[in-house]
């Protein structure tokens, strides 16, 4: 995705918990990409990454909430609720906090685009581990609930639905 954004003229700040992989990707995409280590379960990491972007580039045009985790318990009765909370804090809280901190800069400028990757598993049961599908549904719901609260309606919040299936042409 970073490559696509850069091809379209963007300067990209890549964030991830995988420090070395992120650094390597930024070096590969030099000089149009920078890497900032960010654990989306920590609000301060997201806030710092947004502040870094604005201080480096003078603006934040697009926030792309894309990172996820999933897990696969063999049976519903084996669902580990500590693991469930961890997945929700990455896949849902991470998205909500991402929207919150992007909005800090986008709302005053009356401009910006927030992308949140969804999943077809929200629409069809049994495709993915339940906690992953539940978290993607909550993340889509969060996007739907938050955009009317972005008082300046001039920025777009898009929740895309990504599918592992090829569309039938
Ligand atoms: N791969 C598919 O077939 C598919 C299908 C439907 C939807 N999607 C959606 O597309 C998006 C990307 O999926 P993918 O398969 O490319 O994912 P991926 O596993 O390749 O990448 C997810 C990234 O999130 C990072 N991450 C994990 N925990 C983090 C944390 N706490 N803080 C910051 N970063 C963290 C990981 O290190 C990893 O680099 C996701 O939102 C996913 O739900 C994917």
UniProtKB/TrEMBL annotation:
Pfam families: adh_short. The keyword NAD applies. SUPFAM superfamilies: NAD(P)-binding Rossmann-fold domains (SSF51735). Keywords: Lipid metabolism, NAD, Oxidoreductase. It comes from the Eukaryota. GO terms for biological process: lipid metabolic process. Belongs to the short-chain dehydrogenases/reductases (SDR) family. This is Secoisolariciresinol dehydrogenase-like. It comes from Nelumbo nucifera.
């Amino acid at each position: 995705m970073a490559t696509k954004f850069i091809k379209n003229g963007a300067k990209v700040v890549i964030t991830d918990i995988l420090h070395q992989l992120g650094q390597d990707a930024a070096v590969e995409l030099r000089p149009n990409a920078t890497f900032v280590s960010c654990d989306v379960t920590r609000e301060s990491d997201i806030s710092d990454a947004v502040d870094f972007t604005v201080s480096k580039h003078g603006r934040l045009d697009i926030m792309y909430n894309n990172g996820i985790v999933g897990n696969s318990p063999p049976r519903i009765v084996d669902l580990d609720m500590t693991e469930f909370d961890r997945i929700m804090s990455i896949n849902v809280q991470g998205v909500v906090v991402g929207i919150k901190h992007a909005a800090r800069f986008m709302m005053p400028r009356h401009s910006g685009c927030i992308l949140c990757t969804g999943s077809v598993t929200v629409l069809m049961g049994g495709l993915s581990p339940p906690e992953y599908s539940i978290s993607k549904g909550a993340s889509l719901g969060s996007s739907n609930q938050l955009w009317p609260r972005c008082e300046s309606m001039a920025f777009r919040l898009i929740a895309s639905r990504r599918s592992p299936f090829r569309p039938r042409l």
